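Lest this sound abstract, we think one record worth quoting, the chain in one-letter code, the fold tokenised, each line plainly labelled:

>
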Amino acid sequence: MVGIPSAALAVLVVALTSLGPLSTDFYLPALPAIARALHTDSAGVQLTLSVYLLGFGAGQLLVGPLSDRFGRRPVMLWGMLVFLLSTLACVFAESLAVLVGARLLQAFGACAGPVLGRAVVRDLYGPAESARMLSHVSTATALAPLLAPLLGGWLTAAWGWRATFVALAVYAVLLMLAVAMLLRETNRHPDADAMRPGRMLANYRTLLADPAYRGALLIGCGAFAALFAFISGSPFVFIEHFGLSPQQMGLAFGLNVTGFMIGTTLSARHSRRLGPARLIRYGVWIGAACGVLLAALAYAGPQHLAAVMLPMWGVTAAIGLILPNATALGLAGYPRMAGAAASLMGFVQMGLGAGAGMLVGHGVQHGTAALGLTVAAGMLFALAAWSRSPAR
């Protein structure tokens, strides 16, 4: 049982799921400064994002089964400790290679927060209420990418790029203390065989053989790839291409995040009446239309900030409709291996997101076309996956 009220639990789950976006969005305004300080280019510094995302995804393949075997709480605490130590390594990194390595370890620790936060929701609320709860959590979690770039831009301007990692280390300490003091175990049915390689592979085969799970997974993959293309490309588009300051870049990024918040708010409000499948349908069509518009404007020229901001706002709103509902549909049929189901979903989505970030990193210095094309491709992929999914 959980020994704290549901409202306090919701706050804790939001804090846990915020660890992922905070670890990426907090230092986004500092990326150009990091590139200059460590003598690299946009593609080089992009590795600190893409490697983080790959590690975040790969780590989930272990975190989920570990929590199915040993419980959510101990795995969370160990993950927070790994995150704290690797974040301190980021603070003192003097080369790109060291920073990339520290970011990889940071990802292994950070993935425990979002994956196990979602698993806790599934443990406590079951399939019927999890979509609504995950939408509420996603809405509140969206405050992290809304506020983190603003604060990160201010810290970078005032004290340099290392200050963003100092702030993340402080957050990790507070989060570790909160989990240790407030959260009791929610996994009431630990699986003694969850960590056996044969069992793990069998679980993953079972999940991938399920058309409902596979459809939800692929829909989320397209949406996440589009989202991460924007996350990774926006600092260079806003700062290097349009000449914004780090603080202004944080504000522009935050304005786009309001679209995501509105999407998740609408999802939470209407999930009972409309259902996850219908909300996903609205999201993939809106996202595909706005993504294609973004790509078309990138090629139409002349370039203007509004030509990126306005269609991207529509894309983020659509992603807010898609992601919580796709997650809920994917986890609905697997109460006894929610950790494995959440971790596999996260792994595949993060892998595609990392690939999208690498594509944008190699083309973003030449304008907005790479960003527009990658976002459009992600949303069209989500639409195609939806058209072949039982959820349609």
About this structure: The chain has a mean pLDDT of 83. The chain has 16 helices and no strands. The longest helix spans residues 211-241. Residues 34 and 161 are 7 Å apart (CA to CA).
